[in-house]
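so i finally got all the pieces together for this one. its two components total, 596 residues if u count the protein bits. some of the lines might not be protein, just check the labels. i wanna see the whole assembly predicted at once instead of chain by chain like last time, that was a mess tbh
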Amino acid sequence: MTDTIQYAKRRFEAVKRSIVGDRDEESTLLAGREGNAGVHLQLWFLVTLVVFPIFIAVVVSTKQQGIVTSLPDLIPGTYAVENYREAIVDYGFGRFMWNSLLMSVVVVVGKLVISVLAAVAIVYYRVPYKDLVFLFVLFTLLLPVPIRFVPLFQLINDLGWGNSLLAITVPYLASATTVFILRQHFLSIPTSIVETAKLDGVGPVAFTLRVLIPMSRGVLVGVSIIMFVYAWNQYLWPLVIIDSEANQVAQVGLQLLQGDVQGGQLSWSLVMAGSVLTLLPPLALMILFRKPLLETFAIQQK
Amino acid sequence: MSTREIFDGRLQAALLLVPTVLVSVVFLYYPTARAFRTSFFKAGFGRAEEFVGLENYATLLTNSSYHSSVALSVLFAALVVAGVIVVSLYVTFLIHEVDSGQDWYLISVIWPYALPPAVAALVFLFVLHPTLGVLTGPIEAVGIDLDWFNDGPQAFVVVVLAAIWKQIGYNVIFMIAAMNNVPNALTETAEIDGVGRFRRLVSVYVPIMTPTLFFLVIINTIYAFFGTFAFVDLLTSGGPSNATNILIFDLYREAFSYFNFGVASTKSVVLFLVVAVLMVIQFRLTEEYSYYGA
């Protein structure tokens, strides 16, 4: 009998909380859960699966021949320095990495600047048709690279930009996603702050530099990481438009290394060294800036 | 009345918008319009364009190898989307439930967000290499003869697995945010009612996460159609015997192996219709289910 009353009471409390929306019950909740060893075990298994292929790549990149046909072969070798040096210097991977870095930085900085300008106009200016312009920009989400790379190839060659840094940066500069995220963030800045700035007679330039940007640091870092990962990981467009090795990016450089393996001139350990090198920059940025990155994703979905 | 619209210089506003609009028009809208136009022409390198009306579209309608590429892409997308959603949802749930080390587990499964598809493809190629792969021995010990350089269905499965692997990170990022937004009191109510863990996931969390899951289904579908070119190019080159020749790879080959820019443009238009339909569906679903998230 008392059990039933207890139950009803707890149940009532719980329902009340669900209506009020209290979310600070973490500690009592977790204490009540059972079987955490099982959860850990399953997580370990899944994490191992997700990390395993890259672990193999790292191990192989330290070996002489890169032949790893069984699990006991997974002890790291001693050729790490030699392999990475050979990939970077002898097979031009340093050059590919530099080109990728140049491309990504130009895309990130360029996109960030022109997207901030557009978002400022869309949020803080009282002008006609600006919603229409916003829709016009948003509509470009329907036009990803894969549906326009054939005519884009023709256009870039008509412009005489083939095989250049311009070809792999300028077409990426307009970004519906970035403008959208910045707009959402600007709309979340309290109007009182904006109106105070207006009363103080702050002009648009000073407003952007002294009010908006300091209040948007996290989001600006977050979108920069999203844009960097996006630009760095591009494969199809550089493959199509860049045809000299000197200007090639790391993603396509990997394909060139792989071609040498198929041709029998190269061992797999160098391809894996190249793969690890190509993974490092976006991975490092993501881990370093994971907090602003995750916060920015939260804005994107709203 | 409070407002954010504190400036009203029309010329200033226009100048601020010019760069984004200009790049959009020149490098996004114009090439798309040009693809529509070229789809009615016979065109290629150094050849004069020749107007052929709907001939390219008729070619695609009657071409059986294009039909199988369409079917293959739909199957591919279905498997990738289902695989990514199920695995990511389960991993997310485990991270949500675990009592310690959450941050560590989270970063260990979301890192593939940063993984370049080309790297993912090459690492898979090596790990599952029919003669050199580390996993080849163990897999063959189970009784599967790994021969995906020659076996079409096996090659298809390898590309699907690599594509799923790369996309898990992105999905967990969104799912964990949605799952953490479920009010704890709801979880507690379910626990007091004696609802088991797994049923709590299926009957409590999944319905509340519906808007996020719809968003991810659409994003993953677009990824499966357009973001997987590197996997096919590096793992199988569309083979063996077109077993992995999905639409985006087929389009690339049409343009840059056969140099039929006319037909390739027609195929671009078809892909545009695929994106457009997906976006419309997403928009509709978001409207319909948005009250859940609010």
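The radius of gyration of chain B is 24 Å.
Chain B touches chain A through 105 residues (CB under 8 Å).
anyway lmk what u think
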